[in-house]
């Protein structure tokens, strides 16, 4: 309860404090209505205990609720035997709080406790009118109204319990979506650059192990590629951290420049790996595309090139094609094909738990309404194909 109170706005906190202060004052005034000072004190204490049970932390709620209802029932039974009793009010604030205790018990407690505990405040509320001195015909009416209010408070508690469950489920679904999105972003960017560092380092070690002497220029160029890939990985990590620290800020890891950003990606890949060629449909050059489409295209090409580095042994050429589907200008086709020898292992490993890249791509493409397939190509190598709809563009 304290955490929930602190989470509210300042205005709401002031309103709750004022409401609590007014309730305490009303409980004290209703206690003064009793004819005897000890009874007035007992009435005030009983009302305060009920208020306390309504606002205590959840771990103390059952204990306080049972004590408050026991004191209320005991005070009612004692007052029924007194020669003088209150003439106008038995404690309306206490009555209202007892009814709200029923709602809180149903809403917050475990199923078993929520079934048994409401009976205690319900009994105390039904007995409360017996504190009045004159038992007129209105007494039966008051008891009837209270009895009718009990199931209403139970239903209210069930509705609030269902509402809390739905909110918790939506919150968990949102968190899961965010976790998946962050996992995809980390894999798409950081893993791509780290893979480039690993591939270039392996190439340098292989060259050294073979006894080939490298010129200072070649060595400097290779180290420059490694340095650039490391800097890009660090920049991607910083962008992800910035996005996580400020969710309202736009994701700094999203590719910019639309499909034109693929040229830089192909150029960087070719500088430290097999030769990659990009074919970009001229009809897409000036056509505005939504960010989710350009991001999906960028991720497909990036992940495919990363897998070529990892798995396509002996690959000498990679073909990247981003075109409109033949016969259907409202479908965008992204194709990445290599001529390596490790395609089957790459695909199988990714799909069978060796990696999450293809799984993340499938999720991303299907979320955009497209389809994603991978498989060996005729003549050797591996082929990745993604088809994205452009109906909404």
TrEMBL record:
Every Signal transduction histidine kinase subgroup 3 dimerisation and phosphoacceptor domain range: 183-247
Boundaries of every Histidine kinase/HSP90-like ATPase domain copy: 295-391
Coiled-coil zones: none
Catalytic reaction list: ATP + protein L-histidine = ADP + protein N-phospho-L-histidine
Matching Gene3D superfamilies: 1.20.5.1930, Histidine kinase-like ATPase, C-terminal domain (3.30.565.10)
CDD domains assigned: HATPase_UhpB-NarQ-NarX-like (cd16917)
Residue spans crossing the bilayer: 12-29, 35-54, 113-133, 139-163
Enzyme type, top EC level: transferase
EC numbers on record: 2.7.13.3
GO terms under cellular component: membrane
Pfam families: HATPase_c, HisKA_3
InterPro entries: HATPase_C_sf (IPR036890), HATPase_dom (IPR003594), Sensor_HK_TwoCompSys (IPR050482), Sig_transdc_His_kin_sub3_dim/P (IPR011712)
Keywords linked to the UniProt accession: ATP-binding, Kinase, Membrane, Nucleotide-binding, Phosphoprotein, Transferase, Transmembrane, Transmembrane helix, Two-component regulatory system
GO molecular function, one term: phosphorelay sensor kinase activity
Designated name of the protein: histidine kinase
Organism: Streptomyces himastatinicus ATCC 53653
Lineage: Bacteria, Bacillati, Actinomycetota, Actinomycetes, Kitasatosporales
């Amino acid at each position: 309860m304290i955490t929930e109170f602190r989470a509210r706005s300042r205005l709401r906190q002031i309103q709750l404090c004022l409401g609590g202060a007014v309730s305490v004052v009303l409980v004290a005034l209703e206690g003064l209505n009793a004819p005897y000072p000890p009874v007035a004190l007992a009435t005030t204490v009983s009302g305060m205990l009920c208020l306390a049970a309504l606002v205590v932390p959840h771990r103390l709620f059952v204990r306080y609720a049972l004590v408050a209802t026991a004191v209320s029932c005991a005070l009612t039974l004692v007052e029924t035997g007194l020669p003088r009793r209150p003439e106008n009010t038995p404690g309306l604030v206490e009555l209202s709080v007892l009814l709200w205790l029923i709602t809180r018990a149903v809403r917050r407690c475990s199923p078993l406790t929520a079934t048994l505990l409401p009976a205690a405040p319900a009994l105390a509320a039904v007995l409360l009118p017996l504190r009045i001195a004159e038992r007129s015909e209105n007494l039966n009416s008051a008891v009837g109204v209270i009895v009718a209010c009990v199931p209403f408070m139970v239903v209210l508690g069930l509705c609030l319990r269902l509402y809390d469950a739905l909110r918790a489920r939506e919150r968990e679904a949102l968190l899961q979506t965010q976790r998946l999105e962050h996992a995809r972003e980390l894999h798409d960017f950081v893993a791509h650059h780290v893979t480039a560092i690993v591939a270039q380092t392996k190439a340098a070690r292989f060259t050294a192990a073979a006894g080939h002497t490298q010129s200072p220029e070649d060595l400097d160029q290779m180290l420059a590629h490694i340095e650039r890939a490391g800097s890009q990985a660090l920049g991607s990590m910083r962008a992800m951290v910035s996005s996580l620290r400020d969710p309202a800020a736009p994701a700094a890891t999203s590719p910019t420049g639309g499909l034109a950003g693929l040229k830089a990606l192909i150029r960087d890949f070719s500088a430290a790996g097999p030769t990659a060629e990009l074919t970009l449909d001229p009809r897409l050059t000036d056509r505005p595309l939504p960010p989710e489409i350009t991001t999906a295209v960028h991720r497909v090409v990036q992940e495919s090139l990363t897998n070529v580095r990892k798995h396509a042994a002996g690959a000498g050429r990679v073909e990247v094609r981003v075109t409109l589907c033949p016969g259907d200008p409202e479908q965008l086709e992204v194709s990445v094909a290599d001529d390596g020898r490790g395609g089957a292992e790459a695909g199988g490993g990714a799909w069978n738990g060796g990696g999450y890249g293809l799984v993340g791509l499938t999720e991303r493409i299907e979320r955009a309404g497209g389809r994603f397939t991978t498989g060996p190509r005729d003549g050797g190598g591996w082929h990745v194909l993604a088809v994205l709809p452009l109906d909404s563009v």
